[in-house]
Design a protein that fits this description.
There is one protein chain. This protein is mostly beta strands. It has an eight-stranded antiparallel beta barrel. Strand 7 and strand 8 form a beta hairpin. The protein starts with a helix and ends with a strand.
Length: 123
Amino acid sequence: MCIVCTVLLTSCIHSEIDNSMLVGKWVSVNGAKDAALNLYIDELEIEVKNGSWDYRPFISDEIWEYYIDKDSVLNISRTEYDGDEYDTESYELDLSFSNSYNTLTLWYKPAFSSLRKYTFIRR
């Protein structure tokens, strides 16, 4: 019985997503080719190119800090300073991979809107 438990726990640990799986350039397949959302991801940050209202929460070209929690949720945040105070924005997006980690899918659930699904391919 202990051997089965150990094997199950080991397989769960290896299925967790870490930052290194995200590193690289990701291009959205949801938009027009010349205006596709691009995410440039390193170990700590996500740089957004071609952001727009259609790609909420990636509405403009900006840089987000991120981490992935144990439930495979991508937590993104960014802080702006307007001269008087700091304003922090943060979101949670479910994520998954397919095709040997060459396809990334993000799901975003806005507070007052329907679930949004974004699919990216690694470039």
